[in-house]
Write a structure and sequence with these properties.
Oligomer: single chain
Radius of gyration: 27 Å
Order of helices and strands: HHEEHEEEEH
Distance between the termini: 76 Å
Number of strands: 6
CATH architecture of one domain: 2-Layer Sandwich
Structural class: alpha+beta
CATH superfamily of one domain: DNA repair protein Rad52/59/22
């Protein structure tokens, strides 16, 4: 095609766009449009505190946080202790409190000996009352079962352990984790 024809074609497309009509190429077939109807008014899962017409007492919120996890979410570490994945703890906090009613802050992990440690703080707002809990998390680079973690993995492990321990002070997985009895 010549440059003149390309310019004419571009101007023609531009005019059609301005008029709101769709340009269809005689060579190319139009795209297939989905025939599925869009889903409207999809119910979103709300946190315990955000549910309408329900005023939850502090005790109700703590009971919801303290609810046991299913057995398939509990993992066993090499040292015999039970643990839970961090994502399950975060999901529980989001489900019960809502993502806007809690936050977690931590210090930079510090390397001492063979492990990284960090201090953390979880701030929680329940029915307009703000409270916080602090805890220390640690993770060894040499896990003891032949696996040696990279410094980044060990730092992440320390931060995750700190978050889980802070959440356990509010009752999340309190009676299920950090017990040696299987």
């Amino acid at each position: 095609m010549t440059i003149v024809k390309l310019i004419e074609r571009a101007l023609f497309k531009q005019q059609k766009r301005k008029l709101g009509t769709e340009y269809r190429s005689p060579v190319l077939k139009p795209a297939i449009v989905s025939k599925r109807k869009p889903v409207r008014n999809r119910q979103k899962k709300m946190s315990v505190l955000a549910q309408k017409n329900h005023h939850k007492t502090d005790n109700d919120v703590y009971k919801a946080l303290h609810k046991n996890f299913s057995k398939n979410k509990i993992l066993y570490r090499a040292d015999g202790f039970k643990t839970i994945e961090t994502r399950h703890v975060i999901n529980r906090l989001n489900e019960v409190l809502g993502p806007m009613n809690w936050s977690f802050k931590h210090s930079s992990p510090i390397f001492k000996g063979n492990e990284y440690t960090c201090n953390g703080r979880i701030d929680v707002s329940i029915n307009g009352k703000s409270t916080f809990r602090q805890q220390t998390g640690s993770c060894r680079q040499d896990t003891g079962n032949g696996v040696i973690l990279s410094p980044g993995e060990a730092q992440t492990g320390a931060i995750q352990m700190c978050l889980k321990k802070c959440a356990s002070l509010y009752g999340v997985a309190l009676n299920q984790v950090y017990r040696t009895i299987r």
